[in-house]
Amino acid sequence: MAVPTTFEIVHSCGHTITHDLASRSADQRAGYARWLAARQCTDCWRAAHQEDVVSTKEWLAQKRAEEEAAATHWAAQFDMPPLEGPETILGWGARSRHQLVTRAYTELVTEGFSVKFSVSS
Question: Which superkingdom heads the taxonomic lineage of this protein's source (predicted)?
Answer without folding.
Answer: Bacteria
